[in-house]
């Protein structure tokens, strides 16, 4: 049984086992977390499918509410609305954009650094390079690392993102539309990228050498301040999931493959493409600064910000 002791100062220090805080001033009854399977977020899948998170919080009398929100920008919006407490997997591009917009989203841990897992994909054999996308139609989630990848890829060829028609849609929607011939290119990641390739599409370019994707775990600012013990417990279970994955790799891959609807071989490829972690490193802050400069230059950000503004102090490297 995990016991969490909160010190409350009311003239004298009174110890009590609780998840209380200034935001609610009563014991925490539920925690709302995002469940993000894609691109191949194996620790999240393991935490949920093995009941690790539910069990840990149930021992404290807290119910876990899972919300399937794949987009980092939509997770940030849910946090701003107070309906999401923990963003289990968000890209730093979305976090920076949310912070610049005034949303209090805090990075509390690293999650992965998956360069090979993000790509621009096409089912049109005549599109073999980024220049071939000029005047074409592409689809994918805006305000994400994939959006940043598209802008960086266009810029690398002396083009601007305005030189094509970029439509907002989810990753699954973009893949479906591309394979049906309604889009010339789609911004894809993870298992959906693998599935699109298996259906005859090809990779035009990956993130490697263009952007440095960083996936992180985030918390709503008010929730972090009011319920730090709940955040600590979530991160503890994340670390336990990572350790279980390493000790039981084949079983973990089988669980991930079943949840994603892909083969075990494809799951293994995605696992190798994804570098999971439980912390930030100094290089993450440096590449985030590079990302900020790039987003300012390309109109994705309208004002300067700093990585430290959206990172909880205990998560800084």
Provide a brief overview of the structure.
With 317 residues, the chain is of the alpha/beta class. Helix content is 40%, strand content 21%.
Question: How is this structure best described in words?
Answer:
InterPro entries: SsuA/THI5. It comes from Marispirochaeta aestuarii. Keywords: Signal. The chain has 317 residues and is α/β, with parallel strands linked by helices. The protein has two domains: 31-114 and 214-315, Periplasmic binding protein-like II (D-Maltodextrin-Binding Protein, domain 2), CATH 3.40.190; 118-206, Periplasmic binding protein-like II (D-Maltodextrin-Binding Protein, domain 2), CATH 3.40.190. The chain has helices at 42-49, 52-58, 72-80, 92-100, 145-156, 171-179, 190-198, 221-226, 228-247, 249-260, 264-273, 282-297; strands spanning 5-10, 12-17, 30-34, 63-67, 86-91, 105-112, 118-122, 137-140, 165-168, 185-189, 202-206, 215-220. A five-stranded mixed sheet has the order 9-8-10-7-11, with helices on both faces. A three-stranded antiparallel sheet has the order 5-12-6. It has a two-stranded antiparallel sheet with strand order 1-2. A hairpin with a 1-residue loop joins strand 1 and strand 2 (12-17). Helix 2 (52-58) runs antiparallel to helix 9 and helix 3 runs parallel beside helix 4. The chain is globular and about 60 Å long. The model is unreliable at 1-22 (pLDDT under 50).
């Amino acid at each position: 049984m995990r016991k969490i002791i909160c010190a409350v100062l009311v003239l004298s220090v009174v110890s009590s086992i609780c998840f209380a805080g200034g935001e609610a001033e009563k014991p925490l009854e539920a925690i709302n977390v995002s469940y993000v399977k894609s691109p191949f977020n194996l620790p999240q899948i393991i935490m949920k499918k093995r009941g690790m998170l539910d069990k840990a919080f149930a021992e404290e009398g807290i119910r876990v509410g899972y919300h399937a929100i794949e987009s980092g920008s939509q997770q940030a919006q849910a946090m701003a609305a107070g309906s999401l407490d923990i963003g289990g997997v968000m890209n730093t591009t979305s976090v920076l954009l949310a912070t610049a917009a005034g949303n209090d989203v805090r990075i509390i841990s690293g999650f992965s650094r998956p360069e090979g897992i993000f790509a621009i994909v096409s089912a049109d054999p005549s599109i073999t390079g980024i220049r071939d996308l000029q005047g074409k139609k592409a689809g994918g989630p805006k305000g994400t690392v994939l959006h940043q990848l598209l802008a960086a890829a266009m810029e690398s060829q002396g083009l601007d993102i305005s030189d094509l028609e970029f439509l907002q849609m989810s990753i699954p929607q973009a893949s479906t539309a591309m394979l049906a011939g309604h889009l010339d290119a789609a911004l894809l990641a993870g298992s959906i990228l693998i599935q699109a390739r298996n259906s005859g599409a090809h990779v035009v370019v990956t993130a490697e050498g263009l952007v440095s994707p960083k996936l992180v775990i985030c918390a709503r600012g008010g929730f972090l301040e009011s319920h730090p013990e709940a955040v600590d417990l979530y991160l503890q279970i994340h670390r336990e999931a990572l350790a279980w994955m390493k000790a039981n790799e084949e079983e973990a891959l089988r669980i991930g493959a079943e949840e994603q609807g892909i083969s075990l071989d494809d799951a293994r490829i995605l696992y190798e493409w994804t570098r999971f972690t439980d912390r930030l490193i100094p290089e993450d802050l440096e590449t985030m600064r590079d990302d900020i400069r790039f987003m300012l230059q390309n109109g994705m950000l309208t004002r300067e910000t700093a990585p430290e503004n959206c990172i909880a102090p205990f998560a800084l490297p």
